[in-house]
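Sample log: Tectonic family member 2.
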Amino acid sequence: MRLSPPVPSLLGLLLLQGVLRPLRGDLVFIPSVIRMSSPVVSASLVGGTEDVTVSLTQLRDEMGLLPVPTCGELNNETGDWSLTVTPTVNSLEVTVRLKRDLQSCSSNGTDPFLEAPCIVQALLVSAFHNTSCSAHLLIHVEIYANSSLGQNASENVTVVPNQVYQPLGPCPCNLTAGACDIRCCCDQECSSDLTALFRESCFPGVFGGDVNPPFDQLCSIQISHGVPDWFPFLCVQLANSPFLGYFYHGSISSGHQVSFDIYLHTDLKDFSDFGYKQGDPVMTVDKAYFTIPQVSLAGQCLYNAPVAFLQNFDVQCVTSLEEYLERDGITSAKIKNGAMGGIVTPKVIYEEATDLDRFITNTETLLSTGPAPRNVNVEEHYIFRWNNNTISEINVRIIRAEINAQQKGIMTQRFTVKFLSYNSGNEQEWSGNPGYQLGKPVRALSTNGTNNVTTLHLWYPAGRSLCSTATLKPILFGESVLSGCLLEVGINENCTKLRENAVELLDSLVQVTHVAMRGNSDYNDLSDGWLEIIRVDALGAGADPPDSNVSGICLDVPAQLNIRILFSDAGAVEGMTQQEILGVETRFSSVTWQFQCGLTCEDKADLFPIGASVQFIKIPAQLPHPLTRFQINFTEYDCNRNEVCWPQLLYPLTQYYRGEPYSQCVAKSLLLVSFIILAVFLSNPWIRIHKANS
């Protein structure tokens, strides 16, 4: 829509003023011209803003002439418009706002978007000293009655197609039902005239509607391009999309909130009566999933996540005490055991939490006790006993804490699930058979008989990350990690005592003497692949250095425990590489501790960080294979640089193919070659040659 003739002239004049005036230090609006398409717009007035008055005027085009702006009269209310001025640093923020509602523009409730603009006006904002005009801001108003901004969207439940077979709708940017979404060119609710306004600024990619882009291998795409003669034999005829399943498996989604159980508890398929398979959800007798809170890939806690058969997990969820809801009673749950008509009832044991600071932080002090206290579950530990494809027993240990009914704060909950064989005597399990599996705990034992620790540990801090409240977690095979906690130290701390405390905390992570070479080493047989841990003692842990009498400074304080684990490939079982541990070494690193003072050194606790690191080193080191002269000279045959990989033309016969045994690949390849030879001999040229010779 074009401006009226006088407006472009004024627009050019204001643009020229907006460029020249800041150079002279005069008052100027930035920007000096605004095209307004929303109910609110703002600009900045810079320059000498002392004793400056701002007024708003509606320009009326009569006979092609604009009236001369009048300065000196304060006018902040002009019909449907209001003007507000907010002082800022060295400038004034001027805001012009439409007072009336855009709902009045629509002729009826079913008209989502009017063809013509709802409001077309010209506004002039003037800044003046006394009666002298100093700066002008021209606002050209052109507002459409967009129901996507002014009306409420439908809250009805929308059926989402199955993402395995089709993308999430043909137009993902169509977010508002019954209204035209700006910049969404695939929105069928936008007329052609409206789409022409923003056609040059359409949303690109998948969000903009390109959910099924053609790819080079499609037969229909390559027909019109220059392609080799053999292309029709290798092109893809099936129409496919790389975005299938890109969003999530759908059934329904609500407009109010996205809840896990919205699409989880629909169309349940229960095959538990015929036995569970690994990964199958554990079912209840009510034909519902048995759920335990778990953490999604996005890091959010899903409180209605189903438990998968033979899949262990250990997660933590952070929630507010104000939003905490008690889960349904676990004691009354009846779970299918995997056999026809079989039921398992969990056996629950309750324990009281001893230290609430480990679980609840940011608490508020309550002046009155209020109602009766309530119990909250801070830890839930589930142990499933399995026998073949059935569940024989479920043991649950719940640690709960008693808090005030009106207490506020942040609570950290822990949920663990572990599947153990029905005939295992305790909760110890193999970490592999025979070699270690990635992600399984490193098995260990102590020969001094003072404890029953069976693995190496790291800190699992919570709350304030203090060492006194930190819990322990096992070291997992193949995962190099860092961990640490904070030790409270005073300014008058005895250096010898500080070293002893640090060494004691670091030694608590390694309370064992031997580590298992394999994942199935027998705990009762020390000769069954058990390696003694090599320990390098901390330096100066038992004596003070000469200058240790200085308050607030201690030398050679152990602050870091470095655990290095050497492992290597030890063969293969049924084609699977088996890995075993060759040695474990622990070494301390020391630092000089100094009390950190602020403006004054007060006698209060300082936080001294101590940490532990685990490093897995593979022996021997896997060096990259050097490039051959052929790979250097003929880069077009390099599979890592080109889309076509000719060296893998016979991929099933190479050493990289692991889908089938090598003997079966050779047999199938020979059968294919025989078919090709038979087809060649029965082809036309050979028949003509045979007839000519006969």
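Observation: The mean pLDDT is 76.
Observation: Residues 318 and 412 are 5 Å apart (CA to CA).
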